[in-house]
Amino acid sequence: MATAAFRLELRALGFSADAARTITDDQEISSLEELKILMDVDVVELCKALRRPGGTINNPQGRAAGQPARIPNPGVNVPLRAVENLKMAAYYIRHHDRISRDVLPGMITLLNVRALRPE
């Protein structure tokens, strides 16, 4: 699956464009196979890393008087809805693997993912 298509599926799950880019580029999770191996605790840790990646970045206000050149990396916003949807997406892929069904690009939708959620 192309990275751009995978990012669109992440966007459909509730991630912002920045968060989707960070997942695919910085965390190198850009395929259904990579997503399939994530357990719930791994998804929580991934989202924690997105929110607080550590390190510093260039300060956009760095040229203003009294402003430091570098600031702590603020990370990206990750809503709880996106975290829960990503957990369900990983489960959805593992479920299809268990029942010997393929997951094709475009199948990771809110409707499909939430269909497996207990009521």
Topology:
Layout: H1 3-12, H2 17-26, H3 32-36, H4 40-51, E1 56-58, E2 70-72, H5 80-98, H6 110-114
Antiparallel strand pairs: 1-2
Plain-language structure description:
The two termini are 31 Å apart. The chain has helices at residues 3-12, 17-26, 32-36, 40-51, 80-98, 110-114, and strands spanning 56-58, 70-72. It is built from six helices and two strands; from the N terminus they run ααααββαα. α1 packs across α2. With 119 residues, it is mostly helical. Strands 1-2 form a two-stranded antiparallel sheet.
The average pLDDT value, as a whole number, equals 90
**Main beta sheet strand tally, sense and closure:** 2 strands, antiparallel
Structural class: mainly alpha
- Model regions low in confidence, pLDDT < 50 over at least 5 residues: none
Order of helices and strands: HHHHEEHH
Which sequence of strands runs across the widest sheet? 1-2
N/C terminus separation: 31 Å
Radius of gyration: 17 Å
Question: Count of helices?
Answer: 6
Beta strands, count: 2
How would you describe the shape? Answer: elongated
Strand content: 5-15%
User: What percent of residues adopt helix (DSSP H or I)?
Assistant: 40-55%
